[in-house]
Amino acid sequence: MIARRSRPFMRRGSAALTGILPFIALFAAWALLPALAGIPEFKLPSPGKVLNTFTNMMADGSLMAHVWASLQRLAAGYLLGNLIAIPLGLAIALNRAVSETLTPVLSFFQSIAGIAWVPLAIIWFGVGKGSVLFVIANTIFFASIYSTVIGVRTIPRVLFRASLSHGASRWDIISNVVIPGAMVQILVGLRTSMAYGWRALVAGEMIAGTDGVGYMTLEAVQWYQAEIVILGMIVIGVLWLLMDALLFTPIERVTVRRWGMVR
After folding, report:
1. Would you say the pTM of this structure is higher than 0.85?
2. Could you list the residue ranges that cross the membrane (predicted)?
3. Dihedral (Cα; 218, 201, 118, 81), 10-degree rounding
4. For residue 205, which of 74, 99, 113, 40 has the smallest C-alpha distance?
């Protein structure tokens, strides 16, 4: 019995180690490459210099100020985009003719990178928070609504007919068939839209922002502060990993797995 219980923990530990190994390899390559290839430090600063920059920016509060500004914009754009996209996506998908008509259009807009909207956003809203927020919400909206429509369309039609034959109301069908049946794809859309939104945020801040992690990274380029550029890249990646682990994994556990859609 004890051996059986210990197996899941051993598997998790093995999976965690497997996930850490590539980062260790990258860190080793980063530490050794400048010396082996003769790359000057102003182009590729050492890990020690980046760590020292991180310590100094944490001490003066500048790094946290940029991170907080980015997270606030991401949260606002994420909520705005999904609050519109998911209900609208469900409404569109419940009408098969409408969903088949609009799916190519939604796929077209989903394929447009968030950064492509930045010039138009600057014309509409000027340089600043409004442009960045528009780019984030727009990117998240089209990613989520497309996944929602596809999720509903993949539900077998026999489930709808079976529900109707048992006297289910429209709300019963939505709550017991549509939402659980499309939840896997909706969750994929939520996760994908967050990733797209995060990249759109960084790109928007680089071009149209006045603060944030993207703005911090681009501003450092003007002064050839490669250590801040690399620090910004690391912060962007770490924040995404944390958001994915703290937000989407628990959501998946209490929704998709609870309804038995995946093991």
Report:
1. no
2. 74-94, 106-126, 132-152, 173-190, 228-248
3. -170
4. 74
Q: What is the mean pLDDT of each run of 10 residues along the chain (263 residues)?
A: 53 64 86 84 90 96 94 94 92 83 84 83 88 92 90 82 76 79 85 89 87 91 91 92 83 62 49
Q: Which residue has the tokens 């990733």?
A: 195
From first CA to last CA, the distance across the chain in angstroms is: 22
Tokens representing 43 are 């182009």
Size of the chain in residues = 263
In the three-class reduction of DSSP (H, G, I as helix; E, B as strand; rest coil), residue 166 is classed as coil
**Sign of the CA dihedral with 70 first, then 73, 75, and 78 last:** negative
- Supply the pLDDT for residue 263: 47
- Spatial separation of the C-alpha atoms in residues 77 and 142, rounded to whole Å: 12
Measure the CA–CA gap between 227 and 54, rounded to whole angstroms.
9
| Token pair listed for 145 | 């609504």
Distance CA 107, CA 109 (A): 6
Q: Hey, where are the domains in the chain?
A: 61-254
Q: Coil, helix or strand for 263?
A: coil
Question: Can you tell me the distance from the alpha carbon of 46 to that of 52, in angstroms, rounded to the nearest whole number?
Answer: 10
Task: Give 95: exposed, middle or buried? Use CB within 10 Å, 0-12, 13-18, 19+.
Answer: exposed
Vertex 200 angle, CA 194 and 201, to 5° = 85
Helices 129-153, 62-93: crossing angle, 10 deg rounding: 40
Distance CA 146, CA 202 (A): 23
